[in-house]
Records
---
Amino acid sequence: MKRKLSYNRINRILDNLAEILFRGKRLDNNEWAEGCLLIDYVSGQYFIHTNGNSVNESNKIGEEGCLKFFAFEVDPETVCQYAGIRTYKNGRKIFVGDIIKVNDFWTGVVVWEFNDTSFEVEPIDNMEAVECLGVVVNGNKVEVIGNIFDNPELLEVGE
């Protein structure tokens, strides 16, 4: 007997999926844009479509519906993916390229490790070993103190 998925069960499954989100620095004003990443492989341009910037144009003649949206062009060098984890302190999203402080003791940069296929924290001061981001955040006081683009001075190792 085939079992049907109920509407509530489908919603619970969807709620547990990781949010896929990107951010990048806008070319027009150097501000961060956060949302869906769009890449034009012909021109090489990168865009971020921010949430809430869509208009449903379903009144077009002969069409079922059309979604019109706009996106901000961003610097491809600044595009970072959301790691799917937030800080416990204030719920701030943690992205690749963020600089985090752990237990007021050590700092590290969030990176994507291709070989391990995981988000990791690479210590700045080499006092700790590279750790999986999920392990670092779990049970520790973690705070995003900046990122590698806006705060490169935080990458300097103290004497």
Note: The chain is about 10% helix and 40% strand.
---
Amino acid sequence: MLARLAATRRVAWIALISAIVFVITVLVSLLSGGSALPIKLHSSVITGAAGLACVISVLVGRPLPAILARLPAFSDPDRRRRIERAASDPGRRRRMTAMTAMIGITLLLDAGVAPPWPSCSDGPDFAPAARLADNC
């Protein structure tokens, strides 16, 4: 991220946001007494939020990748024209909508695979919480 910023003088926004979210996760973990639960849930929360955003964008009729593709094109009129031309093609729009729906559902399923509750196999830190939740 820093190397790209130094070389191109442009911020890699996804990398920056990912780093900020990870730092917040580590801080929450430290503030909660060193619990590993926030770090374990970090991936599921991010994946679930991205999946939900994709599914909502499909339901609204504006696929998220199509919206994100337009963001860097604001400064380049030629690129913006090409993106607008591609977005106006009904076949391409249907494929983009189907792809976004598949991505969203896959991300939601992935987020649901990792249980958000502690289990006995998570180690001694989580075993008492798992017993309270009757997961043992």
Note: The two ends are 43 Å apart (CA to CA).
---
Amino acid sequence: MTWFIAILLGTLALLVAALPFLWKRSVPQAAPDPMPDPVEELQARRQAIYHEVQLLHNDWSIGQVTEAEYRERLQGYRLQAAALLREEIRLRELEERLEEEVLAVRAEGKALSEAETVACPNCSRLLEVGMAQCPACGAVVTEAAPHG
């Protein structure tokens, strides 16, 4: 009888210990970003290379890698990291140029919209050219020179 209880308790203990590993957790995961940032991807790849360099240095310092192999692999990692860094800089410069172009287009659109307005003679609110009456104060708008 004691053997039966011991086996039963042992099986129960193993089941309790293994249950978290056998149970699939249904933790809601965030949806992946449909448009990942390419600069962040390059940074992550570069950080992975730096990590590989650290591991290589550790292997070399304990003697698992020869001096020649260490230098060859280190040079390869340096070249990869430099190429990623150049691409990262190129993408950042491209983003800056695009942002400047967007701001220029917005400023141009704002200048055009201001040129197509007239000021209300009563309240000075900007109105579209051709409006007969100001919606804010109700004043009658005469043909005035465009504002801007």
Note: Residues 117-148 form one domain.
